[in-house]
Amino acid sequence: MSSRHKTVALKTAKEMNQPRPVIVKNLLTCSQSHEFDDAKEEWTVQSLIDESSEGFSNHCHLCHTPNLKYNFILENALNGTTIQVGSTCILRFGVGLGKMDVDSGAIFLNNMIEEKELINFLQTYSSRVMVLHPEGRTLKKYYESLKRYFDLRGITAPTQEQLGLVIFGIKWEEQSTFNQLQMKRIFYNPGSIEVSRTKRTRPTHNPKEGTTWGHKRRRNVETTLARSASYSPEGRVVDNR
Q: DSSP label at 14?
């Protein structure tokens, strides 16, 4: 998760103020109630989108703050209306938090941001691990990110569909048999996957006249995460460096 957004959320949580008239007006316009405190209870946080998402708004629909990186999608339980807001309006005024206190709300929003960033990483880098011999460090980070995502969700044994939706999105069923098996191996048995590990080469210098190159290039070697020091016997990722 971005430390910047975590800091903003926690800072905002300590700044409980009365909403400005424009915020009250904007919320009441799309709510059933005519009282702000009652109206804000009609809303719940449903999802999160970022700048790459269709329909993203760069300003908050309540306070009009510009340059948002994320939109929290709030839905009204009474009329089905949705609005896109930043974390400030949610935490400062309690819009969409329901029975959560401010500190719990900050944790909730930060977890949503981290989940979104994890999904972006997992879907962007899926092509690098859905190969016969993925690079070891990439696979290690991918496994850790996948595990972290489901830890945030409180899921210890994700189904094939849950894995597929996170890694490939709604078209996960269209993936090849290899990819569908690979995603399960990555989560449940990463040590069984043979990986390629590129060793770093020492920097070479221009040789003096009459001398030869002092070092030879090292080749990629194939190993398995089960035999690698990067993984413990139980298949969990560890870093001994």
A: T
